Amino acid sequence: MSQKKLSVGILGAGFMGGVHCRSLGKLEGIEIKAVCAATMDESKSLIDGNKLFSARAYADFDAMLSSGPLDVLYVCIPPFAHDGQVVKAARKGIHLFLEKPIALNVKDAEAMVAAIAEAGVVSQVGFHMRFRKSVKLFKKMIDAGELGRPTLFSGRFWCNMDGSAWWRDRRKSGGQIYEQAIHLYDLASYLLGTPTSASGLLSSLCHAGTPGYTIEDTGVGMVQFSNGAMAAITNSNCALKDHFIGDFRVVFEKGVFDYGSTGDWRIKDEAVIHCDGKETKVVEDGDAYFEETVDFINAIRNAGKTVTPVCHGLDAIKLVSAVMDSAQLKKIIQL
Questions:
Q1: pTM score > 0.90 for this model?
Q2: What is the rounded (10 degree) CA torsion for 185, 300, 143, 138?
Q3: Distance CA 58, CA 66 (A)
Q4: What is the C-alpha to C-alpha distance for residues 65 and 255, in angstroms, rounded to an integer?
Q5: Where in the chain are all domains bearing CATH 3.40.50.720?
Q6: Can you tell me the distance from the alpha carbon of 175 to that of 42, in angstroms, rounded to the nearest whole number?
Q7: Does a cis peptide bond (omega within 30 degrees of 0) precede residue 211?
Q8: How far apart are CA 45 and CA 78, in angstroms?
Q9: Fold of 129-286+315-334
C-alpha cells in the first residue's frame, strides 16, 4: 500500500530553510506546497533555487496557513521572528519541525510545548548533533550499560564571524550561547542526564566597540547533573575566521568519547570511542540534517516519537538561560 503524500510548508527562506528543502527532496511521498518568508522575493528565491515547482510563495504566515491544508511545517526563522506561528500551526494539527533555539525565553518555549502536547502532533527540534554517526553509536553504548557512570563533558563552539545584524543583537538572537553553543548544552544533557544547576561567565572582549554588537563573544558555562556528572562548555567569536569548531570530549567510568573538529567544512570530522581497551574510529561522512528529517518523517508516518521532541528544546532554553542568568547575577542557578 502506498503511503499518503505529506504536504509540507517551509517558514523561513534562509540557509536552514534551504537545507531542509534539500533533505525533504530526497524522500518519497513528500511535497513542499508552500514557502513563507519576510518578503515574496525571498520566498520565490527559495522556491526557484530548489525547483519546488508545486510550491506557492507567501510573505504572510496566516495567509499560508489558511490557503490550504498542510501536514507538516518546518520552522526555520530567527529567534526574534517567532510570534505565535508554532502555536497556530499546532492548533491546526500540523506536525512541527523547529530549528533551534525554539524561543528567546522560557515562557514562550513553554507555550509551544503546551500547544504541541494539547494538539498531539509530532515535533522535532533541530539539534542535529544528536544524529551524527559517532554520537548515535556512543548513545547506544550508554543505553546498553556498556560505559558505566557518566562523569564529564567538555565542549567548545569557537568561530569568528560578523553575522547578520539580528545575530549581533542580544534582543533578537539571545547571543552566541543561544544561537550556537546551545547545541553543546543540549548534547551534554542528552549524554549525561538531567541538569540540576548551572553557572556562567559571559563577556564581549573583542567586539566591545563594534556598533550594534551587544552579544557576548566569550563565554564559559558549567553544569552539574543529577547523577553528579559535570559539564564545562566554552563559546568564542574571537577565534579563527571561516572556521566553525564544535567539538567535545565525554568521559564515562568505562569509556571516553573524543569528537574532533577542524572547523573546516572541507575536512570531515572524526571521532574516537575508547571502551574496554578497544578503540573505535568514526569518520563523520553522513548527513545529520537528513537523518533528523528521516527520524521526523518516520515518526509522523508511524505514530512514533522523535529523538528530539519539543520538550527537549524547552530544556535547552532553560539551561542556557540559567547560564546567562548566572553570569548576570554572579551566582549558581538551580534548575
A1: yes
A2: -60
A3: 11
A4: 49
A5: 6-127+292-308
A6: 25
A7: no
A8: 18
A9: Dihydrodipicolinate Reductase; domain 2 (3.30.360)
